[in-house]
Structure formats: structure tokens, C-alpha cells
Amino acid sequence: MEIIRRPRRLRGTQAIRDLVHETDLHVSDLIYPVFVVEGENIKEEIPSMPGIYHYSLDTFKDHLKEIADSGVRSIIFFGVPDHKDDVGSGAYDMEGIVQKALRLTKSLYPDLICIADICLCEYTSHGHCGVVDHGKILNDPTLTLLSKAAVSCAKSGADIVAPSDMMDGRIGHMRRALDEAGCEDTLIMAYSIKYASAFYGPFRQAADSAPAFGDRKTYQMDWRNKKEALVEAMLDVEEGADILMVKPALAYLDIVKTISDHFNLPLCTYSVSGEYSLMKAAALNGWVDEKSIVMESMTAMKRAGAKMIITYYALDIARWLKEEQ
């Protein structure tokens, strides 16, 4: 039988497959999310996210060493405060839990890249990402508070601020506020395309940030839309974002590919809590091989065009990559 092209020749051995493979996942691509809480001697597993914990600052010191030793270079911080109010004042308090965690991290491991998630939902009594007036989430008054939060985190040591609120105009407002505060070198990683997704469920337990009324569909994107993602990304580029993001990841790889193809800024994607919990639950039940399914999924995100990935599996992936060396 005459067959001129035999693609299987390129798959014949592991050595050949390694020689011709197209996509790599590196430890430097990984961003590890952490949840810090007020109090002492706290290391509490999050029930819906096995293997992920709440840390008070004293126990977080040990976890920081684990992160640094793993080779993971980047951390994104989420705070769970003791006090919440209508305007989310803990988000921009210089003695807020994230601000203290940033200072602690930079004092111990100054070379770690510290990213501060900027939003109000964890800090507001109503659980929404903006100022609320008679049940309506107000856009423009929220921008001032978000910018205050960004400046406070930048002054506490954040290398990157990452606004996740999805308010209109927040990137430009935040860029001006950072520059005026002398934080012109602080990067903005914009949650440019953040869908109103059911995949966020476990995170809302982890961050105690479920909305007290309604939902977030008036500000997070409709998951049925694709062209709208181009508009959101374009606006963030015009307003001064340094890095773009698509969130969630696995169900939105078409969006990751589209944004990667249309914009030249570095692109991040967030493999969110629901993705983690689904894979973790299947692995704990013996239904899938955990390492294989995680590495396949993360490589798909890179293949779609993401330069960096926020993932709760970051420390595991770092270990698996070391084992393969």
C-alpha cells in the first residue's frame, strides 16, 4: 500500500514525540491563589476545595516557604476579613488582611511576584463587587473605591494589581490613581473577560463572597457572548492594562484563543475553583488520573494562547514538572 504521508511516524516513540511537540508548560507560567484570614494559628481546609486552605498570617509563613521552594514565582492574594460593611472598607485599609500579607511576603521573599486581586465583594456586607444603592450596583462611585484598594495594595508591596470587579472604566481610573500615588511601575492585570459563570461556586465559599441578593449578571459578562469579549479587551488595552485575562478557562478556550489572536499584550487565564473542584473530586473518587487530567487541561490553556495560568494546582504542577526532569 502506497501511503506517502504517515503522521504516525512523528508519534512512534516518546523521544520523537518530545522532539516534535509544540506546547510546553513551565513553572514560570503558574500563578498560585492563596486565601488569607484574620486571626492566629489558622490553617483550615476549604470543604469544597480539598487541599486548599485558609491561612492566618502566622501559618502562612510556613506555606510561603513551601511556595518558594516549589519554584512557583507568582502568588495572587484573596482576603477574608473579620469586618464587612456596605462600602468594603477592608479592601483599601492599609491594615487590611491582604495588605498585611503582602508586606509579610515581601519581607520574607522579596523576589516572589505578588498580585493583589482588587474587588469589593469579599469586603462588603452585601457581597457585591460595587457600591449598592436601592438594589442597584453603581458603576462610577465604585471606581474610586477600587482605585483606593489598588493604591493601598501597591504601597503594601503588590507588583501587580488585578481588578476583578468588571465595572466600566476601572482600568483607566485605576491607572491614573496609581500614577498619581507614585506607583507608576505597578502593573495592572485586568480581569478583562470575566463571565457570570457557575464555575465560581467553591470560590464563593472560600472567600465568603456570595451576594446577599440577586446575582452579578449586570456586571459580569453573559456567557453566551463572544464578540463582547473583544470590546472588553479593547477597552482595557486603551485604558492602560498591562496584562489581559480570560476567566474561567476550560469552558472558554475559544475566548482565550480569540483574545490571544487579536491582542499583543500578555494573556492570563484563570482555571477557577469549580474547575479545580471537579478535577479534584473525580481524582479522589478514582475516576480519573489526577496528574494526567490536570496537565492535559493546563496544556490546552497554553495551546489556546494563554501565557500564564492562575491555578489552585500550581504547587502540584510544579512538583510534577520537577519529577519529569
Q: What labels describe this entry?
A:
single chain, 325 residues, alpha/beta, eight-stranded parallel beta barrel, two-stranded antiparallel ribbon, 11 helices, 39% helix, 20% strand
Short description:
With 325 residues, the protein is α/β, with parallel strands linked by helices.
Describe the structure.
The chain is an alpha/beta fold. 39% of the residues lie in helices and 20% in strands. It has 11 helices and 12 strands. An 8-stranded parallel beta barrel has the order 1-4-5-8-9-10-11-12, surrounded by 9 helices. Strands 6-7 form a two-stranded antiparallel ribbon. Helix 2 packs across helix 3 and helix 8 packs parallel to helix 10. The radius of gyration is 20 Å and the shape is globular. The chain starts with 13 loop residues before the first helix and ends with a helix.
Low-confidence stretches: none
How far apart are the first and last residues' alpha carbons, in Å?
A: 41 Å
The Cα radius of gyration reads 20 Å
Q: How helical, in percent, are the residues?
A: 25-40%
Share of residues in strands: 15-25%
How many distinct helices?
11
**Largest beta-sheet characterization:** 8 strands, parallel, barrel
With strands numbered from the N-terminus, the spatial order across the biggest sheet is 1-4-5-8-9-10-11-12
Overall pLDDT score:
94
N-to-C SSE string, H for helix and E for strand: HEEEHEHEEEHEHEHHEHEHHEH
| Structure classification | alpha/beta
Strand tally is 12
Shape: globular
